[in-house]
Every structure is written in structure tokens, then in C-alpha cells.
Write a structure and sequence with these properties.
It contains 5 helices and 8 strands, in the order H-E-H-H-E-E-E-H-E-E-E-E-H. The chain is α+β, with helices and mostly antiparallel strands. The chain has a single domain, classed as tt1808, chain A, CATH 3.90.1570. A hairpin with a 2-residue loop joins strand 6 and strand 7.
């Protein structure tokens, strides 16, 4: 079993995870996109981008790089890395993207955001996988003796973006979905998350 095999029912049965819909962000201040995102989106208009891999390369990565640059490399980006936490419970496997506080470590430390590329162009399908990775990140941090009270996740098709967070045994999924046309608001949401951890992880 791997992260992608989980369902909401299995997550509740194995880990007692409950899911709730909730408005997560209020008064998000859009962030003017920099050259990394602007150039990627301009190039995107001339390409036929259909696959998940292509969308991660042309949409997700430039957004994450822009955020990292804006925050003076506060976090590092892991792409396609395995987060093997507990083989017996199935908390194992590759993650599309992990954002972790950059402490100049060779190993993943302080996973703070899990990003899942949605399958079949449907963010709802990616919710259980994202929640499973949040549970994995929570346990991983606890084993590293760096527990976090809240861990954020995001499921994206590249065009649609849906955010959530895990706190204790409850996952709160945003009632609002964001779209690539409002990329500066998406940047603002991510910045709100990063600002939260700058206060949490002093």
C-alpha cells in the first residue's frame, strides 16, 4: 500500500482522521508575479500541455521557485522524493512535491506542505492521497522530534488549486478552489502559509 492507495474511509479507520469543509483563508493579499512565473505562463500559451508531468514542469515548479526566491530560500523543494514513514500502515511512497524548512540538511526535515498532482484533471480525486501524505508528514516530524501543530497540503491540476491542512486528527479542506487565472492570489495563499511557519518555526 502507498499514499495513492488510501481512501477517506481507510484514513478514518486506520488513523481516526475526520474531514471537514471550511473556508481557510480570509483577506488574501495577491502577490504580483515575478519573472519566473510570468515567463512560464507566457511560454505555456504556445505549448500543448496535457500531462501531469508537463504541468508540474511548466506551472507548479515556476510558482514554487518564485515563492522560494521571494522568501530568501526559507524552504526547500523536494520533487518525487520518497517519504517512507511506516510500511505496515502504508504510509510510504513518492510524493509529487514536499516543501520543507531549509535547514541545510541532507535529509528531509520539517515537512510543512505536501503538494499532490491530481489525477484525471480532478482535484477531488487527489484529496485522500494528499491527506495520507499529511498524516505521513505529521508522524515523520514527530519521529524527528520536530512536531508541528498544523501541516498544509494542496492538490492541483496546474489549472485548479485546492488547499487543506491537518491539525491533530482533523483535516480541513478549503471551500474555495483557486484557478490559474488568479495565479497572484495563489501566490498570496502560499505566502500566507509560509508566513505562518515563519512564526511557528522560530
Amino acid at each position: 500500500m502507498a499514499y495513492s492507495d488510501f481512501t477517506l474511509g481507510i484514513l478514518e479507520e486506520k488513523f481516526g482522521i475526520t474531514t471537514h469543509r471550511k473556508s481557510l483563508f480570509e483577506m488574501i493579499e495577491p502577490i504580483k508575479m515575478g519573472t519566473l512565473v510570468q515567463e512560464a505562463l507566457d511560454e505555456l500559451k504556445t505549448l500543448q500541455v496535457r500531462s501531469e508531468k508537463a504541468k508540474s514542469e511548466w506551472i507548479v515548479v515556476p510558482i514554487l521557485r518564485e515563492l522560494r526566491k521571494r522568501n530568501n530560500q526559507y524552504f526547500t523543494i523536494y520533487s518525487g522524493e520518497a517519504l517512507n514513514v511506516d510500511k505496515d500502515t502504508g504510509l510510504q511512497g513518492e510524493c509529487d512535491f514536499i516543501l520543507a524548512k531549509d535547514i541545510q540538511s541532507l535529509d528531509i526535515n520539517y515537512p510543512i506542505v505536501q503538494i499532490v498532482e491530481a489525477k484525471k484533471h480532478d482535484v477531488e480525486i487527489g484529496i485522500p492521497q494528499c491527506i495520507a501524505q499529511l498524516v505521513g508528514a505529521k508522524i515523520y516530524n514527530e519521529k524527528k522530534k520536530t512536531p508541528l501543530s498544523k501541516i498544509y497540503g494542496c492538490v492541483t491540476t496546474g489549472d485548479d488549486w485546492l488547499f487543506m491542512f491537518l491539525q491533530e486528527n482533523a483535516v480541513f479542506v478549503d471551500t474555495k478552489r483557486y484557478y490559474l487565472a488568479e495565479v497572484e492570489t495563489i501566490l498570496g495563499v502560499f505566502q500566507t502559509i509560509i508566513d505562518y511557519y515563519k512564526k511557528e518555526l522560530k
